[in-house]
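Notes continue from the previous slide.

Worked example: a multi-chain complex. Inputs as given:
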Amino acid sequence: MEQILQYFFEYKEAIFIIALSIFLGIEVISNVPAVLHTPLMSGANAISGVIIIGGIILVGHADLSSFSLDLVLGILALIFGTLNVVGGFAVTDRMLEMFKKKKK
Amino acid sequence: MDKGLTLLNIAGFTVGDTLLELSYLVAALLFVVGLKMLSHPETARRGNLWAFGGMALAMVTTLLLHKQNGEGIPLTNIWIILAAIGVGAAIGWMVARKVKMTAMPQLVSLYNATGGGASMLVALLEYPAAAAGNVGSILVTVLGLIIGSIAFSGSLIAFGKLDGRVGDIMKPFMTYLNLVLMVLTLGLGAFIVVSPNPPAEMIWAIYALFGLSLVYGVMFVMPIGGADMPVVISLLNSFTGIAAAMAGFIYNNQAMILGGILVGAAGMILTLLMCKAMNRSLINVIVGAFGGGPSSIGGEQGTIKEINLSDAAVLLSYSQRIVIIPGYGLAVAQAQHIAQELDELLEGKGVEVKYAIHPVAGRMPGHMNVLLAEADVPYEKLVEMDDINPDMPNVDVAIVVGANDVVNPAAYNDPGSPIYGMPIIDAHLAKNIIIMKRGMGKGYAGIENELFFNDKTRMLFGDAKSSIQKLVTEIKSM
C-alpha cells in the first residue's frame, strides 16, 4: 500500500495528466455529428498508435550483440505501431477526402 | 552570463532532453487540437493531418534525441528501427489506399489490433525492467499487457466477424466461462503485482497472463452479434488507447499518456453513444443477452403485399418527398452507387429525396454516412434520425433498403420485444412504404417486423442492387 502511495507521489504529474485528459477527451468529442463517427474513430485509432514511441525506445536500447526473441518481438511491435499510425491516418484522410468532394 | 551558468548546472538538465520534452508537448497539443478539429465537418481533414504531424514530430525527435534515463546513452539500432517503420508504413499506406469503403469496419478493427498488439508487446518486453522498480511500475505494466492483449485478440476476432470469416458463437455457458476467464486474468495480474518473488521467477506468470488475456479477448468478442459490432469496435478502440497510456507510464512519457487517454475517453464516449442508440446498457451488450432466442412476439401477422417494378416506378415518380432508409443490407449489396443514381433521377423529376440515417446503421458508428459519401450523395441530404422523425408523416414514400430492426415499430408498442425502447426511424408514419429485402428473413434481433404487414407497406423482394437497378431502368423508360 505504502509502495502504491509512493508511486503515486513519484508520478503525480502523470496522474494529473490522466485525470485531465479524460475530461479533455470527453469534451473534445461531445457533440460530434454522426457523419463523422467513422472518420473520428479511425483518426483516434491512429492516435493510439502513439505506442510507436515506446517501440522506438524499446528497440533503440535493445542489445543487438546476440539474436533474441525479445528483439524479434520488439521489431514486431514497431511494425505493428507504424501500421496503426500510417494506415490509420491514411485511411482517415481518404474518407474525409470523400466528404470534402461533396461540399462543392 | 552567470545566470546562464547556474541554469546549466541544474541537475539532469541537457538541451537535448529539454527539446525532446518540448517536442512531446507540441505533439500532445497537436493530438488534442487535431481530435477537436476532427469532430467538425469543416476542419476534419486538416485535423487528421495535424494529429499526424504531431505523431511524426514525436517519432523523429525520439529517434534523434532520446537518451536512456540518466545514463545519456543515445539510441542505437537506428537502421533496424527505420527498416521496421518503413515496412509498417508501406503496408499500412497501401492497404489504406486500396480498401473498399464497405470494408472500412474490418480495416479499422485490423489497425486497432496492431495498436493493441504493439502495446501488448512493449509491456511484455518491458516487464523485467519494470519489475526491478516498485509495485506501481509493475502494476502499469501488467495493466498494459492485459488491456493491450485483449484489444489485440478481440480486434482480430472482430475483424474476422466483420469480414465474414468468423461466425457468431453464442452458447449459454460462455457467459460463465467469460466470467471465470476474467476473474482468472485479473487474479493472476494482481498476484504478479503483489508477489514478493524476484522478477526472474515471475516470467512464467507474465507469459501465462499474456496467454490468458489473449484467450479472454477472443472469448469476449466471440458471442457478440453483428448488430452490436459498432459498440464493440468503439470499446476495443478505447482499450487500445488505454493500453498505450499504460505504456506511457512505463516510459514516463507524457505524450503517450495524454494521447492514449484521449483516445480511451473518446472511444468510451462513442461506445456509450452507440449503446444509447440501441437502448441497451454496455453490460447487456457484453453479456450478450440478445441472443436471438425465441422472443415473446407472436400474434396475428396479417398479409404481405408485394409491389411490381412498374407500379413502384410510377409511385416514386409522382411523389413529392421521398426518404430512403438504408441499412447494412445496402452496404452488403454494394447498392450505394445505384441508390445515388435513383436519387438523381428522381430529383430530375422534381422529387425531393433525403436519406434517414440511424445511428447504428452499418457495422460501425457512422459507417452509412461514409458509404453514401463515397457514392457522391451530398452531405446535406443525409438526415439524422431525430431530425427526420418529426417530418415522416409528410413523406410520400419511405424506401427501406436492407434495414430491419431500425424501423421496427415494436420498439414503440411491444413491451415484450427485445428492442422495446430502442429509438427507431418512424418509417411507419410515411404515407407509403416500400421495403426492399432479399427475403422474409428476420433482422439481427430475430424478431418479426410488423412494418412488413402494415397496410401502407409494399415489399419489393430481391437483391438491393439489382432491384434498384431495375427500378432506375423502369423510371427512365417511363
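Summary box: The CA atoms of residues 45 and 405 of chain B lie 33 Å apart. Chain B touches chain A through 111 residues (CB under 8 Å).
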